[in-house]
Amino acid sequence: xxxxxxxxxxxxxxxxxxxxxxxxxxxxxxxxxxxxxxxxxxxxxxxxxxxxxxxxxxxxxxxxxxxxxxxxxxxxxxxxxxxxxxxxxxxxxxxxxxxxxxxxxxxxxxxxxxxxxxxxxxxxxxxxxxxxxxxxxxxxxxxxxxxxxxxxxxxxxxxxxxxxxxxxxxxxxxxxxxxxxxxxxxxxxxxxxxxx
Length: 196
Prior knowledge:
Order of helices and strands: EHEEEEEHEHEHEH
Shape: elongated
Number of strands: 9
Number of helices: 5
Largest sheet: 7 strands, mixed
Helix content: 25-40%
Structural class: alpha/beta
Strand content: 15-25%
Distance between the termini: 44 Å
């Protein structure tokens, strides 16, 4: 048994604070990156803690823009520099917890944000899903009464992952191709191509 029976992992600090405020209206222990009381803990991400690796992380040759297309066989993630500490907090809390309650936004992006953290740190604990559409007391109460298996939402994660990787492939490869084509025509520009 871990120190905590349940670890709520929210997408953002305000969602984590709202859950903690509902669970413990009289207050709880505030730590660096978490709030806890008894056998329950609430922590959070800061949105995208993890990001897809840059081209050169797939090989030194990709530092040069002329080397494309870049088609990763295995996708690499890295933690944003300003999120390293919170990722360490989450990793430590996961080791001390028996069950995780995924509290990402109830959409594909929210699903991916928490799932990719759990995958990145190698979580093997059971994961349940809370679907919060609002942060008022009634909505939180109803959502807690309707916890689901996180596995029921794998399609949302896969959809967000496909979009993210497609954006990366198009952005990294076409930006290089269009920029190099423009430079061959004498233009000194960078053409960023992509959805975002």
